[in-house]
Amino acid sequence: MQVFGLIGSPVEHSLSPPLHEAAYEELGMDARYVTFEPEPETLETAIEGARALGISGLNVTIPFKRDALDVCEPDALARRIGAVNTLDFGSGNVTGHNTDAVGLTRALAHHDVALAGRAVVVGAGGAGRAAAFALADEGMAVAIANRTVERAHDLAGEVDGATGHGLDELEELLADADVVVNATSVGMESDEMPVPPAALHSNLAVLDAVYSPVETRLLREASSVGATTIDGGWMLLYQGVAAFERWTGHTAPVDVMNAALRARI
Ligand code: NAP
């Protein structure tokens, strides 16, 4: 039996087990997806133990995404983003990857959003970093707007061609943008939105990384002006799809995984 899993804290309510196990069942794989919650100071021992036990792969979540960089061989993208969310034990070594980035671009592509033109990333934390690098790597001109403006400037300095801004510039930035990503936690379990409603328009594709609730106020307002909307469940789905495909070498049964996810969010 192959064992995969998630390491983080808390992991009790994670959607990753049903997402991955739906794929194992669909493909008739003898595999399980297990959650682990080690003490923060035991991360390195936990990962070494997982490798020794023959675990095939681990997703990594809060609070370990950054620290995991130091206990694996991160690929270039994970190193640039500064966070690992997928560990692969397949080669005998422990390699680290960031599938949030490809999760975002695959979510946009699934909705036929062209990855060209101007993107505005709101937020400069973990999700914002993944979004900014992912969209710049696709060739988009990226503007990063963040509540703490210094963080936006710092991130912009690391991302090819990006610019950093305060949230007060969002209306101007969105006027000629093609894509906007909410990579802040604003809207999570609340009816707030990080972007002024008047800045939304019908030529925008709006992706909200927040997936609880699935339909955030940002997506409601965006939908009401005729913008294309993509909820955070799609990014969550495709980061899992990318991890599954890396670990197993199989093409993921995306529809089945999506149905398992949608039944729970
Ligand atoms: P994080 O590293 O803690 O970053 C939080 C970001 O939100 C920062 O840019 C922060 O700005 C901003 N922020 C927080 N409160 C704010 C407020 N009241 N007004 C304006 N900005 C505010 O968190 P993260 O890991 O990037 O996660 C951000 C969101 O993305 C969460 O809702 C998370 O669940 C979601 N996410 C979704 C996926 C997915 O697959 N769908 C993947 C990853 C994350 P400051 O820098 O000023 O503090």
Describe what this molecule looks like in 3D:
38% of the residues lie in helices and 19% in strands. The chain has 265 residues and is an alpha/beta fold. It folds into two domains: 2-98 and 234-262, Leucine Dehydrogenase, chain A, domain 1 (Rossmann fold, 3-Layer(aba) Sandwich); 101-230, Rossmann fold (3-Layer(aba) Sandwich), CATH 3.40.50.720. Strand 1 (2-7), helix 1 (16-26) and strand 2 form a beta-alpha-beta unit. It binds NADP nicotinamide-adenine-dinucleotide phosphate. Residues 100, 103, 123-128, 146-148, 151, 183-186, 188, 194, 209-211, 232, 235-236, 239 line the site of NADP nicotinamide-adenine-dinucleotide phosphate (NAP).
> Based on DSSP secondary structure assignment, what is the total number of beta strands?
12
**Average pLDDT over all residues:** 97
- Which structural class do you get from the secondary structure elements? alpha/beta
Q: Report strand order across the widest sheet.
A: 2-1-3-5-6-4
**CATH fold type of the largest domain:** Rossmann fold
Sum up the overall morphology in one term: globular
Total number of domains: 2
Query: What ions, cofactors and ligands are bound?
Result: NADP nicotinamide-adenine-dinucleotide phosphate
**What is the rounded Rg?**
18 Å
